[in-house]
Amino acid sequence: MFEGVDVYLDQLRQELKGCDSALIQDALSDAEEFLRTALTNAKNVNPNISEEEALAPIIDKYGSPDEIASAYREIESRISPSLTSTVPQRDRSPLIKLLRIYGDSQAWAAVLYLVFSVVTGSIFGLWALLGAGLSLCTIFLIIGLPLLGLYLFSLRGIALIEGRIVEALLGIRMPRKPIFIQKGLSLSKKLRLLLTESLTWKTFIYLVTRFPLGLVYSLGLLILMAFAVKFITYPVLGPVFDRALITLGEQKYYIVIFLYPVVSLAGFLLLTLTLHLAKFVGKQHGRYAKFMLVRKEPDNDQ
Amino acid sequence: MNLISETSKKFQKELNSGTASLVLLGVLDRAKESMYGYQIAKLIEAHDESVQMMKQGALYPVLRSLENSGLLESHVDPSVSGPPRRYYKITKSGHDTLKAWIQIWDQTKAFVDTILEGNENV
């Protein structure tokens, strides 16, 4: 028998120990959505029934925590995050391994994420900072507290959107449902809950740091790719437009024609390494996003 | 007796892993509006009074897996009486896939029935 929805959720959390934290968050919000809706309906039919009595038949039909945990584990094992490659990588020569990056959807998706991260980063960062500033300035006015509450909720919403982008483009499993905050609590209790939870502050720090990180990612990647493309096309476009290979201040550096293939090759190598770098940085950023935006479950090793 | 009930449970579970997706697509294909998990579970329960085929909670990960495959789409709406709800709707690709799955289901059902009824001209 379960005394309340929270007891069930605690047990479900225990059963899902060791699973991906995003999966745990999804499973808990699914269970919470179902059990609380069913409980409200049961109480509408029979207002005198205790929560424990009402929950027994509901949980019997919904499934015990161990049954539900095994259902999630089973389905999750069949799903791979959106663009993650599931093809086993067999050992081939280092050259083939290096060139395989051109067919790697994860690398191209990471390029997309990193190139546009200056745009998303500046929107996220601006919102986080402006919202915080506005909330602080109005904190002693009547609208101060509701405004602060709305702002903190909006951070959760943005974190969910960023999570979906990270999962789709960087292949890191992120929550697919918002975190539920119990209904029926007063505004001040909800605010206290939000303010005291480390996830709120970690989300804030993440969103603020997203702007400088986005700037570095986008600029770094675009500069590297621009150099690579310039080197690759130099043998054709250099002589046609009378462009120097490298210009440092007033100094222009040209190279002799027989070295043109070497420049093209160097450009191709630079592009290849840039793609590898983008994939690596994308993965590391995905881990950082997961650490900052997903509620940490105890003893969760993933 | 216990062994029979255990093997039956296992058999039912294996069957469910395939049929749950078909049932959920079928329900959402007939639905006029988007539906959330609890509504879908209740609708299935109404057709399934004698014996519960699968735990209602096991429908949620299947819904998510169908969405992940592009057969369903969803949006989250706040609710007056509880946590926010995720509403699911079938996609065009989901509708086409359902048509193909129904054909496979009909063929499988006919094949299994023929075998079980002892017709040797399968």
Beta strand count of chain A: 2
* Fraction of residues in helix of chain A: over 70%
- How many strand segments of chain B? 3
Class of secondary structure makeup of chain A = mainly alpha
Shape of chain A: elongated
Q: What form of chain B results from the Cα inertia axes?
A: globular
N to C succession of SSEs of chain A: HHHHHHHHHEEH
**Intertermini distance of chain A:** 31 Å
Structural class, from helix and strand content of chain B? mainly alpha
The helix count of chain B comes to 4
How many helices of chain A in DSSP terms? 10
Segments of chain B where pLDDT lies below 50 for 5+ residues? none
User: Roughly how many Å apart are the termini of chain B?
Assistant: 33 Å
Order of the strands making up the biggest sheet of chain A:
1-2
Mean pLDDT of chain B: 84
Task: Describe the SSE topology.
The complex is a heterodimer of chains A (302) and B (122).
Chain A: H1 5-15, H2 21-45, H3 51-62, H4 65-78, H5 94-99, H6 105-137, H7 144-170, H8 187-196, H9 198-241, E1 246-248, E2 251-253, H10 260-293
Antiparallel strand pairs in A: 1-2
Helix pairs in contact in A: 1-2, 1-4, 2-3, 6-7, 6-9, 6-10, 7-8, 7-9, 7-10, 9-10
Chain B: H1 2-30, E1 35-36, H2 37-46, H3 59-68, E2 72-77, E3 85-90, H4 92-116
Antiparallel strand pairs in B: 1-3, 2-3
